[in-house]
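This section describes the prediction task in plain terms. A model, or a person checking by hand, is given the sequence of a single protein chain and must write out its three-dimensional structure as a string of tokens. No templates, partner chains or ligands are provided. The sample shown here is typical of the held-out split.
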Amino acid sequence: MASCGQPVGPDFENEMTVVSCPPQVQAQLLLGQMHVDRGWLAEAFPYFEAAARSGHPVAVNMLGRAYERGWGVPRNPAQAAAYFETAAALGETWAMFNLADLLLLGDGVPKNRARLPALCIVCRKRQCESPQYVGAPA
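The expected answer:
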């Protein structure tokens, strides 16, 4: 689920800062997710698109998901990968996971298994450091 206030930072392997999310962006992400959860995929896109204009990494990742899945736009995994790259560079863990998935499958981008270990290591490290996953099975 889309949420703000996740640990992110420009040096996402080492720096763990929290980027807060403006209330308007939180609302847009929540509305978009509510539409997806109800199967109203086309109606979800404008909320994710509006939220992504803020540049918040969670919002940019969700816009990538919309392009990856075809939520309200024609499916475009190459465009999704570009949004995932942007959000991953800002430290968004889910964007790293989503990008790794596209790179593994070669979906919209050339297969690039050489990048997978770095993306997966950062994802795993982030997951383990996240308070919601502390104590969760590995």
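For orientation: The longest helix spans residues 23-37.
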